[in-house]
Every structure is written in structure tokens, then in C-alpha cells.
Amino acid sequence: MDLCGPIRVKSVNRKKYILVIVDDYSRFTWVKCLRSKDEASDFIIKFLKMIQVRLNVPVCRIRTDNGTKFVNQKLCEYYEQVGISHETSVSRSPQQNSVVKRRNRTLIEAARTMLIYAQAPLFLWAEAVATACYTQNRSIVRLRHDKTPYELLHNKLPDLSFLHVFGALCYPTNDSENLGMLQQKADIGIFICYASTKKAFRIYNRRPVLYEITPTTISAGVVPKPTSSTPFVPPLRNDWDLLFQPLFDELLTPPPSVDPPAPEVITSIDEVLADGFVDPDNHNHVYKLKKDLYGLKQALHTWYDMLSSFLISQDFSKGSVDPTLFIRRNDNDLLLVQIYVDDIIFAWILPWWLDKDKEGNAIDPSHYRGMIGTLLYLTASRHDLQFAICMCARYQARPTKKHLHAVKRIFRYLCGTVNRGLWYPKDSSIALTTFADADHAGCQDTHRSTSGSLQFLGDTLISWSSKKQKSAAISSTEAEYIALSKHIDIRYHFIKEHVENGVIELYFVNTEYQLADLFTKALGRERIEI
Q1: Which segments of 107-213 are extended strands (E)?
Q2: What are the pLDDT digits (tens) for 426-439?
Q3: What DSSP string describes 350-367?
Q4: pTM value?
Q5: Which CATH number fits domain 2-166: 3.30.70.1350, 3.30.420.10, 3.40.50.2000, 3.40.47.10?
Q6: pLDDT tens digits, residue range 60-95?
Q7: By CB count within 10 A, which of 281, 354, 412, 477 is most buried?
Q8: What distances in angstroms separate CA 315 from CA 232, 310, 312, 329, one per listed residue?
């Protein structure tokens, strides 16, 4: 369970909060709009009684956050009376209640999209959320079951024949007592949601009235441009952003912690709410006793402001749609930084990966092949060039300026490493050690993987290889399997028998110590020198 809000604009029934309840197994979802948080306790008790009667199964466990709307004397007494186990997530750990948190955001994003597409008034957000929940319960959300939440919960297929697009035109019958002979017999409205206790729809028209009609009077279209004498002005994009802004604020600022206070810490003087004791060694800081940084209400906002200020100072730009996405461009390179709670995800786009470059300017292939042939001689003693040269050698049929530039980079690298080579000590042991690895779909043209391996006799490197696999692998495990055994039907059983007999020992090697990475992917100078 989770409660989010308040929404800036009240609904038709003056609701401001959304209570979301998700079944952990089927992911079936119930939503209830409330006027205040105080209504949550009464509705939860009513809902638990209703759901146990309808489904004829007991509720064993409930998981919520640690807010007072879920942790109070009234609910605790009811849980103890009926034998329900109540689990609460740890403070500042929303990921422990991630199922309902993700469903909250999914419903809000869907409702926001529906309101924008239908050009509907903002106060219809409650109906949009209910419609989004209704349709998602009848859509497959967990692929491993291959069934909809409705089918998992009720053990029968849902009826989808009456589903309609949010905002579709509706024509309810005008049954007014003062209807004249020449007056219109039907009103024009838009479909907004499904009736919860009736086999009917709820629609909205320009007058502040909600109708419930049968499925036969809804068209397949969406609301057209208004033609009345007082034109309807749809809300701006910023209005829809402001509508659900408190929900996203709640994601960045969870409810206050109920954990015991931690020892005193030093925090920035601009962020302290009360007077404290001045530290003589830190004139720009003060002590705040019995409050740690995560106990302060504005801590997450402060952390986000400091982080965003730092990223912007490093030439990052903040996303216009998602304020937690930061982008930095450097010519054709693109670096993305995505912030989620206290986690940061980095991603980058490197357009200089070699491919066929079909639109590039072709060059003299004989000159390119001569450069590749010259470099191939060096692979007998320069294992650090093996992967780069083999990568460039794949495009000898139609080389372009892009490929030529990559070859020139190899020559430039050679200029600075002319004294590098192999060292063979005379007192090395004769133990044979092999490293094998493979990337996953590294080839930009065929999406095939590259196998790499090298063999040591004692401390002496005696053999190495880097080769593109002959078939595409659908997973990194399959690619490494092919790298370890080229002919699976023969070499796999050969290795298996020797492992069972104790002749060969297989070990897992972390990326930090995997020497075969040198022959499967492009590495930086620091990694090669190590």
C-alpha cells in the first residue's frame, strides 16, 4: 500500500490523495481517491473486509512505509485482532516498497498522458487514474505468468469488448423534463472512466455533470476542437506538470524518519534551521545537536541542489522533461547522468565505434590493405595491438576515412610505445594457465561477439588470439561458452573430462584480473599498461 498526494487541483468530488493497493502475486491494483489522509485508516479496514469476502481468501501480510497514515493505533489493533502481519519499510529506503512505488509512478504517468491527449480539464485526474488502473489490470504486466492481473486474481479471462479510449466522444440521452420538441435529444460528452459498481460508463460534458451510460453510445473518436461561443482553452503543458508535481516531490522527499537520532554532525550554515554552537575551526559551519543530515527535512533537496550545481558547473545541462537527467555533449560524444533517489547511473554514446560506415567516403583499398598487412606482422610480438588491428582488418573490402583514421591512431600509439615487447625469463615454471573471455554483441554490423584468449607457460606469454565468433549469441553467457569451446560437441566434452580427472582446473576471474579483456574490447592506456 502507498498513499501519495496532495494533488494541486481537487477532483470533481474534491479529492486530493490517491491510495494505491497492489496484490504482490498477481499485481492486481486497486486505487481509491481520498479527501484527506485521515480517511485512509477507515478505508483500509473496509477494504480488507471486502476483499476477503469477495475472493474468499485471507489477507496474511501487508507492506507499507512507516508513515503515520499506515502506522497508527487504530490499524495496529485491527491487524492484531484479525491476525494480519504488518511489515513496514526502513526509513529512507523506498526501494523496499518498490512494487507499489513503481505502480504509483506508472499510473500517474499514464493519467498525465491521457489528460494531455484528450485535452481534458485538470480536475478529471482522479477519473484518469482510475481508468489507467482499470486497463492495466487487464494488460499483461508480468511476462513470466503470461497472464493479466485480472486473470491471475479471478481465474478467468477479462472481457475487453467494452474498452474505449479515454476522451472518446459520448452521446448521453437528454432526459430533461423541460425538453422541447425541437431541442436536441442527446448531449455530447467525453468518456472518462468505467463505473465501479454498475455495467456502465462515466462521461463528462461542458456542464459540470457526470453521466453514467451504457456501452452503446460511445464513439471511437476523441474529443474534437470546441465550437461553442465561449471557446474552451485546454490546459498548458506546464499546468499538467504542476498538477502531479507534489507526487514527484514526495519521491525526492520521503516522509520524516522515525529512527532514533544519530550523533551530531557539521552541516552547511545555510541549511541549518535553528541556532547552534559555533565551531572555532569551521567558521562557515555550525553544530546541530541530535540531528544527522538524513534527519533534516530538507536533506534530500539539499543533496539534489548540491549535486545538480556540481554537474551544471561541469558543463552538464538539466533535462527539460526529466529534471533528474543531466546531459553533457562534446562534439559527437554524449554523456548521460540519471539520478534516482541516492543512486546515479552513467551512460555514454560513442559514435566512433567502427562499423561498415556505408555513408562514409571510400578511400583507396590497396593503400588501406597495405597498412593493415604491415600492422599484422606486429601482432606476433605486440599482443596489445591484437584487438585493434583485427577490428580494423574487418573492413578491408570497402574502407572509408573513418577506418583510415582508426588505423592512423594505431600508428600514433606505436610512436609512443616503440620500446614495448615481450619478456621471457629463463627460470619460469612450466605450469600452463589460460584466460578466456568474450564480449556480448560487440560487432556493430552483425552484433556478433568477439572471443579472446591468451596462454601463459609459467609467467611467460606464449600465445594469444582475438577473433569474431561465427554465430550471434543471445546472451553474454552463451558468448563466453562459445569462447571457451569453439566446437562445442567435441571440445566441451574434452574439457569436461579433463576437469573431472583433475588435469584442468576452471576458475572464475573478475573483470579486474581478466587479462583476456585485452582481446575482446577497447581498453584505455592505463588498463593496458597494468
Answers
A1: 168-170, 189-194, 201-204, 210-213
A2: 777 778 888 887 77
A3: -TTS----TTSPB--HHH
A4: 0.43
A5: 3.30.420.10
A6: 999 998 888 888 889 999 999 999 999 988 877 888
A7: 354
A8: 42, 9, 5, 8
